[in-house]
């Protein structure tokens, strides 16, 4: 890993908060992700499962975390199982975690080699009544791949059919939605690395540059500054490509007079940032481009101002929709008839702004959290309104990362990243 390890105190506290929510006499298991194959002997770069990382800080494959708050033996209440290393592995794959290093990173005192898992697990299941499985209940999940967690659940149910089962996901969705100060600082570090990439990209954007060249500039500066790399697949969309919400081909040459929508950000220590900016290929916005851009920025600023504790998501989205409608009328894109005749389930503004304004941000770009709950202090959200006008070859989205605070105005972790029209044009024409 390139990043500086986070404090083990963070992970110790996270485990403690999780254990407080568990049923009596229950065990919870968290598995690392697999290393996924491509073909032949090729594999994708390893990405740790965010839940085991959140609870242990361990960023290595073939690791298992076991927590059992009511274990008779206090040393069995937290156990971390890691892959045994040897000279052969060290030569071919590099350094792996020793027991001592795993304990230092995680704060877990009881470390075992992975091959001991079954015998230890069988011994402790004699004391347990319930087993917590770490199922994925994220609303956006569409994976068809069987995970290491899935295989463990199948195995465990076959071995222990009489035990009660529970899901760790509802607990984690609420815990992970509220960030500690160290987590907020880590997301801010990812935002700062994203800012470096953006400022460098502004220097090389010009007519005839290719979208993938811009992508490469971001990637270079993310890694150069100890970031994990892209927090998600980057979108570099010039001209009408910006009207494809998840355009990721990044293969078009940028032409004079177009604008480029760049939804691209760095991760750091597995925590994501999430930025979108729109800039003119030629370094200057046209009058119409400025009008649309400013309308999106107005909505973003208004949405940000609403983010306070105890706000309902439904109220938040309703207010933003009303504000966006006014901006679209001012742009000549909607009139009173459009608004009146639109069905209630699809307001008129949805023709030009068809996605949500905010999502949770953290270890996952679309992080855990329940939108049925009220907003709370120390939630980190994106704010990303957009206006998409295919008939004018224009797609605009502006996005910052915001911390809800107990008192005062929301904290914008991307406040220093240029977004005002005048500053972007100035930087591009230096």
Characterize the quaternary organization of these chains.
Answer: single chain
- Indicate the low-confidence ranges by residue numbers: none
Q: On the 0-100 scale, what is the average pLDDT?
A: 96
Beta-strand segment tally: 17
Order of helices and strands: HEHEEHHEHEHEHHHEEEEEEHHHEEEEEH
Explain the layout of strands and helices.
Blueprint: H1 8-20, E1 26-31, H2 50-56, E2 64-67, E3 78-82, H3 87-92, H4 99-106, E4 110-113, H5 117-125, E5 130-133, H6 148-159, E6 164-167, H7 169-177, H8 181-204, H9 211-224, E7 229-230, E8 235-238, E9 259-263, E10 266-268, E11 271-272, E12 276-280, H10 287-306, H11 313-330, H12 336-341, E13 380-383, E14 386-389, E15 394-397, E16 400-403, E17 411-412, H13 421-428
Parallel strand pairs: 1-5, 3-4, 5-6
Antiparallel strand pairs: 1-2, 2-3, 7-10, 8-9, 9-12, 10-11, 13-16, 14-15, 16-17
